[in-house]
Amino acid sequence: MRHNILVTGGAGYLGSTMVPELLDAGHKVTVLDNFMFGQNSLAHVCHHPNFSVVCGDIRVESTMRPLIKNADIIIPLAALVGAPLCSKDPVGATTTNHDAITMMLKLLSKDQIVLMPTTNSAYGTGDKNNFCTEESPLRPISQYAIEKVEIEKALMQHPNAISFRLATVFGMSPRMRIDLLVNDFTYRAVYDRFVVLFESQFKRNYIHVRDVARVFLHAINNYGRMKGQIYNVGLSDANVSKKELCQAIQKHLPEFVFLDAPVGKDPDQRNYIVSNAKIEGTGFKPVCSLDFGIQELIKGYTMICNTRYGNI
Fold first, then answer.
1. Bridge partners of residue 274, in order along the sequence
2. What distance, in Å, lies between the first and last C-alpha atoms of the chain?
3. How is the chain split into domains, by residue range?
4. Phi, psi dihedral angles at 121 (to 5 degrees)
5. Per-residue model confidence as pLDDT tens digits over 25-42
């Protein structure tokens, strides 16, 4: 079945990978984006007859209302993503990540489907073993995670919603971000050849940007049995520490050196191991390994040698 899909923030890191996949699957896709990073990351799909694009702000009701009215499925990707960017602009973060989504939910009819990325950073430090399932208590640390938790609660009141608690995303994208951890460490390995680690034993989970696109398509195709649920989305074999991540990168770049800082504290205190058994139980399996992503990034960084590809 083919759908009319509205993707807000569709020119961003996730969206510029996801939108072409949605089009290739036969859907009609409208993207709303404010292009705040000056990107032209969807230039390669402008030829597609089922693609349309609107330059606008998700916080403006008069912009959102007609776009939502014409959509069967809404994928709200537009956000100020990550703790550093939210700290830099806390008011903008709240109005975009919380207030605009609250407004969007009020504009939806009960029959419209909403598939939303949230974050597994909401787990904070997990239980005494740092292990987290979808039933684990949420202990968000950053403003970004706190507001995502609040929005997820409101989202799950909608009768046709799915929440994806995404692991830390990595991999090349037309709207690249090098500030994400795997992307950042690989960039440092390519250009600086070293990195200093704070609390190198802290673990988190990871997922390739292409597998994020795939899980949304999977949800569209299996919506009837997945709706109303929250799913962790990550690589089950990539619950790795910062030190283990550096060791994985070093296999491809032997000159890369990483050092444990003898003093100091990582301001990001997330440390958890995430179960992805629930999403795997629906038949979804990621296809892009952490090793694949590192190799891809090394090739990609041959073309990228500056720091404008970030969120801050």
1. 132
2. 39
3. 4-169+206-233
4. -65, -15
5. 999 999 999 999 899 999
